[in-house]
């Protein structure tokens, strides 16, 4: 009987000694922080004016400022960008695009993206159209987001004048929504 108890005890000690224990605290771990815009985006696809606040820039100044106009005049767009702002219980989404010319048609697809920990996934999108115009400025408040994630905007800007078309993209910096 003693041999049997001793054998069970030895087996228990061996199992205990060679086992790995993992202790974890009970804390919510959200997704990892996404890469910055410059690490994540091919900057040749468009202009994203990081840090431009909605109220800080006069739209007429953007059109007239030669330092802001980055596209050659053979293109339709003179400039384009998008921005995202944390308004507490909502997100304010903005897309702006300006052309050198009055275009037959303009289209702006604003895509709200959510960081899932490894990549940006489309969360929702909004499409806006303009006709016989040289610019579009669209803004929208969105409150149906999942708290605890990073969000950014990716915007596809389109312009058509006669048979000439141009499509460019912009990407905003990301924000974390509680």
> Which sheet architecture does the biggest sheet show?
6 strands, antiparallel
Return the domain count.
1
Low-pLDDT segments = 21-27, 38-71
Order of helices and strands: HHHEEEEEE
Distance between the termini: 62 Å
Helix count equals 3
What percent of residues adopt helix (DSSP H or I)? Answer: 10-25%
The overall average pLDDT, rounded, is 77
Stated plainly, the CATH topology is called Immunoglobulin-like
User: Taking Cα atoms only, what radius of gyration do you get, to the nearest Å?
Assistant: 26 Å
Number of strands: 6
Can you offer a commentary on this structure?
By secondary structure, the protein is mainly beta. It has a single domain (52-177), classed as Immunoglobulin-like, CATH 2.60.40.10. Helix content is 15%, strand content 46%. The chain has three helices and six strands. Strands 1, 2, 3, 4, 5 and 6 form a six-stranded antiparallel sheet that branches. A hairpin with a 4-residue loop joins β2 (91-115) and β3. The chain is elongated, with a radius of gyration of 26 Å. Mean pLDDT is 77; it is low at 21-27 and 38-71.
